[in-house]
């Protein structure tokens, strides 16, 4: 996006534009008063103090006082408005970015780094606000200060102004030279901070094992290394800053020295009054300081552009969209058909080849096969996380691309190998897709599934907090909630993607019984690594290297002595039945 | 300044103090707000985190709109706090400028009077003004410093909490190195309390070298704590633990832990190569030793099937291993370490039955020549033991072989029958279908 377009789109999002403009106006008034004040001092000295005019001085100081109060009021109001509007603006940016991210196509999520996305939504938007609202507005004040001061200084004494400006070019050059180095140094600091955080995270997570293997010294040493690295990076920034400040001080000092010397000379020679000189020194400051601010703004501006680009980048990642002619469907019957479906992942990896599969409504099929055979890919296609590269996927005879995504997914219930829960109670999680469901509904379906009693044995029953990601519950308990979630959703199609793989054997039977109840009167696709899940199916499909190689019931396939037989025997192979 | 004019200087000092007080108050008010803002910041980060980690769930459930709504709610809370912050800032910051302005005014009035009375020159006044101006910047800095100090103090509090939290297991200054042990572990009247709460009471347990002992008991009986005492993750409250006669508190911690291997429920895999992860058990291990270990635990073929073999990266940016593979890696680690004492802390409870069976087969290969202590409720693991110790409420209540304990019909019997009932033990009837 061009800079102009960028600014225009930023301006569009700004809330409360009128109020904001008022704040800008007040800011200008503030700056203008700032220019008038030193002049009043000049008058105070030259006109009243010099002539010992007490009442005059009193009058002047009253005006001065009044102006200072006005400055105070305008400053308070304008800074409040600007900050408030700025925060609202940041809020809108964050919200919009999050909203977009939430709708991005599934395939891009595989490449996302969590911390990076969080950073874009929260930190980069903050930088945008900070620079484009906060700093840009004070830039207005600074510009007025600089220009105004310059104008007055010239009016007071052109000669002195020119003399003072001697140091300016030097300061500008120095600043320009330092800026890129600063940026680079800041970047390094940020990288090092990230390194430290990663180390700490790892060490805390693995503390037990680090202790068990006696590797504390190593861990401490590693941490010390990255910590010192960060320290050095920060010191580098400090060092540069000090050199920069020292040079700037020197240049300012030289300028001031010239000012006093030459100004003093002019005053002694009678070409200038003392008051003027005093005012001049004031103006010199109110010229120099904002000038530095303006120059350093360049730096912040660069940073903000980077942040803007990062947010832009993520806003441009394609969203999930329905095809233009997509229709809504109600409850489907649950007939699924793969017609010559081939699928290659975006990276080129081939996952499915010429899949032809027909599933009757209410039928339960199990899909088995060695790791990487393409089982989970089938699931991703049915849920339309990806689309077939070739061939058609039909539900109730309709190409799923012709069905609105929302509609499609309403008809499918998914239980994954590892269930992710959200912070909240067991009840909250079961209700998550149906916040309006009543507690009675939840209890009812849990009773139907036969898990009500079990949930009541949890510390707080349905109100038990599950923790972030569901971490406070065991894997098996999370699966039960996932199943209840699907039950409440009541979809005609249910997909179990290795739902039992992570569950401890004590829970396994219980969960299998629960799943059986869930699958009543529904079409089911059971992806199984372990053959106990396959027992729930009417028919078994064997996948190998992306193709269907065998199909049939357990007995039929065992008789064939093909791949299924081999896999099955391998699993059952080394076992001796555990006798009591 | 003081030397130039007492009164004027006093005025300036009074103003300075006023400003300091104002900043201090501001700092005190702003601190709780900052804390709340930081917390809320964490909340919204966590919502974004959920959205990425749980994306499949969110899309499958079709709850994108609900999530967006939730984010909006929490973000608005943050916004409100930020606006409150803005209000406070708008009151305090300009206030200081106002005070500076008024003080300039006062100085001018008073100074002007003095000049008119001939007690001071304009130059003096100008100097005064300059000094006052020179104070503005440091004052502003003081303001920043005070608020930063407030923030730093609350941060320090948090750091202190961590530093003080852990009960320190300290090594005695005259600790000796524990020589290579045979693995004779003795608990002599050991009790362990956390604060007022007793976890273990009067534990007397002797484990002979190369003996395999299983420790069982209901949840909360103290089994996990008991085994944590052996490598001295905690110190006993009373009694003592000896290995080969050495009180473990008398020996160097490293020499103690070097001889103890632990297999836990969830092995720690860190960002590094497979080779690094296996060598974690012994940084001096050679590649041959690593490969040998990997072969024994049947991980070698899998590793070799990966494009980068032992140099494959694991962890967040690398590949993820399955539960079974992680335990195999942990086993390899233990093999590399060659400890005389091995502690198995329920390493198979997160695995499916088939994988568990395989892992136990591999574990068997590692048991020879070691003193082994097993904590588990899984009968398959308990069977590996020569002797079973039953813990209940921190005390040893039963001891013996499986057959002896079943005959007793005590706590062990009850636990075992319950396990069968829950399908824990697929007895001869519900076998693995073949």
Radius of gyration of chain A: 36 Å
Largest interface, by Cβ-Cβ below 8 angstroms: which chains and how many residues each?
Answer: A-B, 104 and 104 residues
Strands side by side in the biggest sheet of chain B:
6-9-10-3-11-12
Strand order of the largest sheet of chain A: 6-7-8-3-9-10
State the helicity of chain A in percent bands: 55-70%
- Percentage of residues in strands of chain B: 5-15%
Largest sheet of chain B: 6 strands, mixed
Structural class of chain A: alpha/beta
Note poorly predicted spans of chain A.
573-580
Distance between the termini of chain A: 73 Å
Shape estimate of chain A: elongated
Q: Overall mean pLDDT score of chain B?
A: 82
**Uncertain spans of chain B:** 423-434
Cα distance spanning the termini of chain B: 100 Å
Query: What is the number of E strands of chain B?
Result: 12
Describe this structure in words.
The complex is a heterodimer of chains A (580) and B (434). By secondary structure, chain A is an alpha/beta fold. Helices cover 64% and strands 10% of the residues of chain A. Chain A contains 20 helices and ten strands. In chain A, the strands form two sheets. Chain A has a six-stranded mixed beta sheet with strand order 6-7-8-3-9-10, with helices on both faces. Chain A has a four-stranded antiparallel beta sheet with strand order 2-1-4-5, covered by helices on one side. In chain A, a hairpin with a 2-residue loop joins strand 4 and strand 5 (398-399). The longest helix of chain A is centred in the middle third of the chain and has 53 residues, at 216-268. Chain A is elongated. Chain B is α/β, with parallel strands linked by helices. Chain B contains 14 helices and twelve strands. In chain B, the strands form three sheets. Chain B has a six-stranded mixed beta sheet with strand order 6-9-10-3-11-12, sandwiched between helices. Chain B has a four-stranded antiparallel beta sheet with strand order 2-1-4-5, covered by helices on one side. In chain B, strands 7-8 form a two-stranded antiparallel sheet. The longest helix of chain B is centred in the first third of the chain and has 53 residues, at 64-116. The termini of chain B are far apart. The model of chain B is unreliable at 423-434 (pLDDT under 50). At the A-B interface, helix 2, helix 3, helix 5, helix 7 and helix 8 of A face helix 1, helix 2, helix 3, helix 4 and helix 6 of B.
